[in-house]
From TrEMBL:
Protein name stated in the entry: Peptidase M1 membrane alanine aminopeptidase domain-containing protein
Ranges where the record places region Disordered: 709-742
InterPro entries on file: Peptidase_M1_aminopeptidases, Peptidase_M1_dom, Peptidase_M4/M1_CTD_sf
Domain of life: Bacteria
Record's keyword terms, sorted: Signal
Keyword Aminoacyl-tRNA synthetase set for record: no
Polar residues bias spans: 718-730
GO MF annotation, one: metalloaminopeptidase activity
Taxonomy of the source species: Bacteria, Pseudomonadati, Bacteroidota, Cytophagia, Cytophagales
A GO biological-process term: peptide catabolic process
Signal peptide interval: 1-17
Entry GO terms, CC: cytoplasm; extracellular space; membrane
Length: 742
């Protein structure tokens, strides 16, 4: 009995080892995903008990253009919709990332003076020495309840814990007020997602103001409080709410903002109001609301009095604005389903003529294409603001680079950079501003999905521009790199080794492959749209995306998520061998036998010049008899007749890179014609290292190439062809690739 048990355990262990060796990439990923529950279902949709918090803000903020300072006060109404009773609240103080000795700076570990360097630049010195000389961070003046009582709070770098006077039960709300100020950073000197740009020539500033107010952290069913520190790379996790914001600026400034302008008659001239109203009914081209001539005049005035611009925004997760006396402003209406949002652009004269020609049109194109692939754009405006060397997104507004040369000229490269960053940043309205993922934890859920839609939009609206980002071919240099400097897509952005590929271009390339080569456009588009509809104005997690894509398509994608998102494997498939056989027909005979790939091109080549060397191997089809309980007969002659004279190519593929992938091959025939054929990735499910597949052809093949159009991110093109040449310069190999056969 013991011997039998030992044998059984041995067989089980061997089977488990074999499964680990050969089937691991196709195991289901349920063990990697959270267990479905009443909040998030196994289908990937919100559960019947799904809930989320709400935070409403009333903010008054003043921009000091003389001292580059923001002063503000806010009242936050926090609604506890969770099933939990809360004893404290967490508030984000993201400006504190610019305090000296902030956590991100003192733990960066990436700055070093090059060996034997005798001099370094001043800006580099600031970064390496960890001292910008800038007095950054929020200066809190008061934290009180609405009765004026001080609230106890503790600041931990970029997070503030507020102790509640009484526990906040389910269904209750709590109001509290914060007064603060902070110095605005010079982006040209010390960088940052927001700040100011100084124009020395006309002595003016352009402000892009964000993370300017203390913001509620997210409390949800998945994490509890998402109070992970802001260290610079991981962006934001935010709660939806309604905003009423008053922005006081110099009277000659123009303000672009999240939300709808409530008092145009107080801040715009009568002529500007007329133009603004006209833009709301104009669909064919942008209407100039503030002209370049007016902006240049504003640059010279330097007003000392102020105006207050009032904006309201409903159901947004954040708020940002831009302000400058340099702004030119144009706008046009866009038809999106039953909605008519305004596409708008604000830019200094340094952006023209490029921005006047292209920016608002790019906003329009983005709203239309993203809406078609997700949900109809629901907000009243979408704004592109021109600011140097930045691409950053907020609800209804984004800040974008792409500046012509000083003389106003530009080429296609400058235009392409400007257009794609506008598409990308405006596109962020959908991910994560509407489909509100947790950027602090999962950068790819907004950056990767948005980069994919950016690629789709550029491909559709700008096919003639030299845009070559976010597709399978563009990620190859990264995928070929050392694994020591790579981390999976499912990595927190603060731990990412190369954030650009790992959060942007690799997930985008993966989704392109998923759409074009795995699922097909129809199934992919249906499932992707389903995800957007399910999670619009909610807080999805990675499992919700993975599960929805499968639930809405009936395509098992666990192998895909596991390989592309949880590993650093790459695509490198070798066409190891192709064996040529021909089915014998009536009266046919063959001489000779196939010779498989040799060391040099032409070795064993037959008289007919076929690159598969010599004559095909004869393959005879013998009679098959019906077995078992069946009483019928097999028509062996009919089967022989159907296959008689067919060329059979037995191809062997080796998975060098380790990533499971569809097999796409291009057959070039002796007559010069070509054919593309695809085998689904599931072919690797029995053997992840090497597979063999039979291809039956009417014509003789001259050559076989894997991934001929570079659609799978294959990293080594040298092993993609059969027959393998002695060198890529061999003229006979080139003729075989063209199908000449001699």
């Amino acid at each position: 009995m013991k011997a039998i048990l030992t044998l059984a355990l041995s067989i089980f262990t061997l089977g488990l080892a074999a499964q680990t060796q050969w089937g691991a990439k196709f195991e289901q990923i349920d063990n990697l995903l959270p267990t479905p529950n009443q909040y998030r279902t196994g289908s990937g949709e919100p559960g019947p008990a799904y809930w989320q918090q709400q935070a409403d803000y009333k903010i008054k903020v003043t921009l000091d253009d003389t001292n580059q300072k923001v002063t503000g006060s806010e009242v936050i109404t926090y609604h506890n919709n969770s099933p939990s009773t809360l004893k404290y609240l967490w508030v984000q103080l993201d400006q504190n990332v610019r305090q000296k000795d902030n956590l991100g700076a003192i733990t960066s570990g990436g700055s070093a003076i090059p060996d034997n360097a005798k001099a370094i630049g001043t800006a580099q010195a600031q970064s390496i020495f960890g001292d910008t000389g800038f007095d950054g961070g929020f200066k809190l003046m008061s934290v009180k309840d609405t009765k004026g009582n001080d609230l106890n709070y503790t600041i931990n770098y970029t997070m503030m814990k507020i102790e509640l006077p009484e526990p906040l039960a389910t269904g209750e709300s709590f109001n509290f007020a914060i007064d603060w100020w902070y110095n605005v950073n010079d982006r040209g000197l010390i960088g940052g997602r927001s700040g100011y740009e100084y124009f020395k020539e006309d002595d003016n500033y352009l402000y892009t103001i964000a993370q300017f107010y203390p913001r509620m952290a997210v409390y949800d069913d998945f994490n509890g409080w998402q109070n992970k520190q802001f260290m610079g790379s991981g962006e934001f996790a935010l709660t939806f709410g309604d905003f009423e914001v008053e922005i006081t600026v110099p009277s000659d400034h123009i303000v672009a903002s999240t939300g709808e302008l409530q008092n145009p008659s107080d801040v715009l001239s009568k002529e500007q109001q007329k133009r603004f109203d006209k833009a709301k009914k104009t669909y064919d081209k942008p209407v100039i609301i503030v002209t370049e001539k007016e902006a240049i005049a504003n640059e010279k005035e330097k007003a000392t009095d102020t105006k207050t611009w009032v904006y309201h925004a409903q159901n947004v997760r954040d708020f940002a604005f831009a302000s400058s006396r340099k702004f030119i402003w144009d706008a046009m209406a866009v038809k999106v389903g039953n909605n008519t949002p305004l596409a708008m652009s604000y830019y200094p004269k340094e952006g023209n003529p490029l921005w006047e020609r292209e920016s608002t049109i790019a906003v329009k194109n983005t709203l239309i294409n993203y809406s078609e692939m997700t949900i109809d754009y629901p907000y009243p405006v979408a704004i592109s603001v021109h600011a140097a060397s930045i691409g950053m997104e907020y609800p209804m507004i984004c800040f974008n680079f792409g500046r012509p040369r000083a003389d106003g000229t530009y080429d296609d490269f400058i235009k392409t950079r400007m257009v794609y960053v506008i598409v990308h940043e405006v596109g962020h309205n959908f991910f994560p501003m509407i489909v509100n993922s947790d950027e602090r934890q999962w950068a790819w859920m907004d950056e990767g999905l948005d980069s994919f839609l950016e690629y789709m939009t550029m491909k559709k609206y700008y096919p003639d521009l030299p845009y070559n980002s976010n597709d399978p071919a563009s990620i190859v240099p990264y995928m070929k790199g050392s694994k020591d400097y790579q981390r999976p897509i499912m990595t927190n952005p603060e731990q990412s080794m190369q954030l650009g590929p790992e959060a942007y271009s690799k997930p985008s390339a993966a989704l392109v492959i998923l759409r074009e080569q795995v699922m097909g456009p129809e199934l992919f588009d249906q499932a992707f749209k389903e995800y957007a509809e399910r999670w619009a104005f909610k807080h999805p997690k990675p499992a919700d995306f993975f599960r929805t894509m499968e639930d809405a398509s009936a395509v098992d994608l666990d192998w895909f998520w596991k390989g592309w998102f949880y590993s650093t494997d790459h695509v490198d498939v070798e066409v190891a061998n192709v064996k040529w056989m021909r089915v014998k027909g009536e009266g046919q005979t063959f001489e000779g036998q196939v010779q498989t790939q040799g060391g040099n091109l032409g070795e064993g080549e037959g008289a007919d010049g076929n690159p598969f060397f010599g004559q095909p191997q004869e393959l005879e089809l013998t009679d098959t008899q019906v077995r078992g309980e069946y009483r019928g007969e097999i028509d062996n002659d009919a089967i022989r007749e159907r296959f008689a004279g067919k060329n059979v190519y037995q191809a062997t593929f080796t998975n060098v890179g380790g990533l499971a992938t569809p097999i796409i091959v291009e057959w070039t025939y002796k007559d010069g014609t070509t054919e593309i054929e695809k085998v689904p990735a599931e072919i690797w499910r029995y053997n992840e290292k090497q597979v063999t597949h039979m291809f039956v052809k009417d014509k003789e093949v001259a050559s076989v190439v894997f991934d001929p159009n570079k659609e799978l991110s294959d990293t080594d093109l040298e092993n993609n062809s059969f027959p393998k040449p002695a060198s890529n310069t061999d003229s006979r190999f080139e003729s075989f690739k063209k199908g000449n056969g001699n």
